[in-house]
Amino acid sequence: MNNQQQHQKTMERVQQGLDRRYRKERHFRWLGLGAIILGLLFVSFLFITIISNGYTAFQQTYVKLDVFYDPEMIAPIGETDPEVLSRANYGGLIKASMRQMFPEVTNRREKKVLYGLISTGASYELRNAVMSNPALIGSKAEVWVVADDDVDMLIKGHIDLRLPESDRRIKDNQLGWIHLLQEQDRIEKRFNTTFFTAGDSREPELSGIKGAIAGSFFTLLICLTIAFPVGVAAAVYLEEFAPKNRWTDLIEVNINNLAAVPSIVFGLLGLAVFINFFGLPRSVPLVGGLVLALMTLPTIIIASRAALKSVPPSIREAALGIGASPMQTITHHVLPLALPGMLTGTIIGMAQALGETAPLLMIGMVAFIVDVPGSVMDPSAVLPVQIYLWADSPERAFVERTSAAIMVLLAFLISMNLLAVWLRKKFERRW
Amino acid sequence: MKKLISAAVALSLTGFVSMASARDYISVVGSSTVYPFATVVAEQFGKTTKFKTPKIESTGSGGGLKLFCAGVGVEHPDITNASRRIKSSEVERCAGNGINDIIEVKVGYDGIALANSKKAPQFKVTRKDIFLALAKQVPDPKDPMSGKLVANPYNTWKEVNKDLPDMAIEVLGPPPTSGTRDAFAELAMEGGCKKIDWIKAMKKKDKKAYKSLCHTVREDGKYIEAGENDNLIVQKLEANKGALGVFGYSFLDQNSDKVQGSLIDGVAPTFELIADGSYPVSRPLYFYVKKAHMGKIPGIIEYLAEFSSDKAWGEEGYLADKGLIPMPTEERKAFKSDIEAMKPLKL
């Protein structure tokens, strides 16, 4: 009896506490779910603001002009000397075409405002057209040219027309002209190819990210050719050959430590060693790649060592057992098996390097560079630097271009990370 | 692996070889305030001449002069932009590294605006109000003539001057490393500081104390250092109606639908009023050229010619379109002839 009572009492106790324990467990689960939801909210907020700010940058406003390739303003018909053709006054052709469309504008100041509707880049467009086909001289043609950034902002709806005239970048007389052009179907939004084919520019409508992408490519190329072989070799030595003593422990601690050093420190090191001591030029991808290689080396070494560790000792023992030398064991068996893990680590390190600006600041890669770099010795900027420079520019039209450049950078980062995941999924071996 | 290593070695070798050969583009460093103007000229220059587009780094005035004065040779920059005049200590540093002839070019003027959101009423302040509202130490408000200093006690603009609105003092501005901040301290704060007679008298006796009194900005959170990015300040002003911001005229010009410039001593920061010198807080912008590099690096002389042409820095030039306040015609002419004669700087 006593015993049964005792048993019931315990059961009761357990029953009483059970609800509480279940509740606690539910709360614990909700907490984790809440953390995930919060994280997703932040990410979607980030993506929504960037995309909603930036998607318009992939379109650009164009204006149709009736251009007369006046032989008097360019060169006589039949002239093919590129020197003469390149020096001609193409801006004048555009001005003449605008004057013809709006003959009522005669005041000098008003005329200047009128010409301002068309981008300064339009005259280079005409020049390139004539230089590639001198037979154009003397003919008339309809040409679509790039509109000025203020016009572009108006067409995209970024200018609030309810504001008083003095507070707007586009004045009432310009609005009148633009409406007239719109009525004649002379204004059109098109895909912004300039954004992907041009280097940096101070005119938002002429600026592009090709220069920055090329700069990032060359920088990462140098970074990879140095960091990957050195990192893998260091990992192989430390994991397979090095004796376990105080020195190797010290080296290991240092490598782990270096992985956490702020990247600006590597920039300072690069400035002191590569530029001041070796005398390499500033602002070139070669130096940028060297600095980023120093930065990613610890990441690659750590990932490679982990990959080597995960190869089971039985593989090594079997290889050695049938008479392979240690070098053959490593190059024929261990390294191929560890390579997917090493590559994953390397790609993640490269993605990190792609998004880095701080160390590049010290070696002069935060710079205005118009020409698209063609080699590792040409001055260049990189993608994150381009974003930083545009975010700092006063012109309103750079706001959307900043977001568009961020979208391009994110696209590269996501595809690099996907590649890493795919490589791991495809080649990883589990024992 | 062998191939890879030899490729890397070959790559680094080509690096060292080409480093010794000449640079075929102009290298410019310096102020972030001059950067938006210099880059426009550089781009124009690259597109209309046979030379490569100059490379322009935004390093700040002080950082630029440090790089500029490091020596003569292709690895050192040819030109540095500055939002203040070169200091005699910097000239000495240059001379110590073998740079004796520096050509000084004034580019034009930049107005510094004190602005707030369009949604709030426009501010009308004097430079004295600015000094009293932002200085770390101010004359004791109980007895301003006594010469006694106290830590800045003002919390609202109304306490500073009873004609001003009853709003908490909150000013967003650049950090001390910025040339804009230096110029703001010198022109707006010192300008107001001098209006107080006994402080003005102090200048003769103890110049150092006078300067530190007039230039030191309060650190109790009323002046907020908002970083070097002027766009950020504009965005913050839009969100916060009660705050004022300090930034360059070109940002005011581009954002005239969001922010309005305050009247300082009764003058608004407009293009015309800065150009004719009536707006009190405007400063000259400069760049400095290494004479030893002229003729060695291709294009420097032509770049200077482009910069000093009327279509660039003239009253109707493309730099004015970007927000630079041009110099008066006489001053432009004088600088242009100095450039043509390559007249070196004398302090």
Please tell me about this protein's structure.
- The complex is a heterodimer of chains A (431) and B (347).
- Chain A is mostly helical.
- The model of chain A has no long low-confidence stretch (mean pLDDT 90).
- Chain A has 17 helices and four strands.
- Chain A has a three-stranded antiparallel β-sheet.
- Chain A has two domains: 129 residues, no CATH class; 218 residues, MetI-like (MetI-like fold).
- In chain A, helix 3 packs across helix 5 and helix 16 runs antiparallel to helix 17.
- By secondary structure, chain B is an alpha/beta fold.
- Chain B is 42% helix and 17% strand.
- In chain B, helix 2 crosses helix 13, helix 7 packs across helix 9 and helix 8 crosses helix 9.
- In chain B, 45% of the residues are buried.
- Classes of the chains: A mainly alpha (431), B alpha/beta (347).
- Chains A and B meet through helix 9 and strand 4 of A and helix 1, helix 2, strand 2 and helix 11 of B.
List keywords for this structure.
heterodimer, A: 431 residues, mainly alpha, MetI-like fold, 2 domains, 3-stranded antiparallel sheet, B: 347 residues, alpha/beta, D-Maltodextrin-Binding Protein, domain 2, 9-stranded mixed sheet, two-stranded parallel sheet, 16 helices, 13 strands
